[in-house]
Amino acid sequence: MKDADTLQRFLFESSNVRGTFIHLQSSYLAALSRYEYPDTVAQQLGQALVANTLLGSTIKFEGSLIIQVQSDGPLHMLVTQCDGQRHIRGLARWQREIDGSTLAEIYGQGRITITINNDRHDERYQGIVGLEGATLSDAIESYFKQSEQLKTRLWLHADHQQAVGLLLQQLPGEAADQEFWHHIETLGQTITRGELLQLGSKEILHRLFHGEDIRLFDPEPVSFRCSCSREKIVTMLRGIGYDESRAIIEEQGMIEVGCEFCNQQYTFDRIDTEEIFASHITPAIPDTRQ
Description:
about 290 residues; alpha+beta; Hsp33 domain; CBS domain Like; 2 domains; six-stranded antiparallel β-sheet; six-stranded mixed β-sheet; about 35% helix
């Protein structure tokens, strides 16, 4: 049986190869519930959420990892985010009916931007690669080849109820064992979409690698959670300033701000706006010098 909304890591003992399984169900459905996505768009969003969380599992950071796809095709924008606590969110934008299943038919020409924000050290890393290959897995693997130079394989799948994935990767900083990597990669390539969607991690490990010595770590929970808040909107309003905020109130009667990720709506009337800026307005101090 699958553990819903979990990430589970494993390690091939006495080797430099690691792996991760992920299964999203409630968190995936929560992301889908915000908009009426066509099936193809929903599945691409699910695959991106899985990929984002898998990539996040390979690094240690306090912040967020963001995958953003921008293109000129039917599905022209997709963005997902995962933080260090495995909180995920994501959304997609499409502009016309999608006729086909390949990367080019879904996205057209475009690029993938992968951004890592490390809050602890106030660092930001960004890598950009083209949308290359037949699938989203292929495109993200290209990122590792070009930017990380780590041998990495990804299998990503989603249907209308769940999104699943498997990552195999050589450990960074370790001497490459090309023969063992080729052996594990070849075994991994035999996994099918149906098996990933239907089997649990232990069953998949036995199916693929029953002849290997593997250490399986405890499952880690994954959940949908949006990082928006009224406090963040207040900070944004203070950033645009009192005069502009008041002008919006005069024109529209209130300020309305919506979060695209979770569809939460935040509204501020005239009194709210005055209160926001009241504590940040410094009264003029008269000059008493003669």
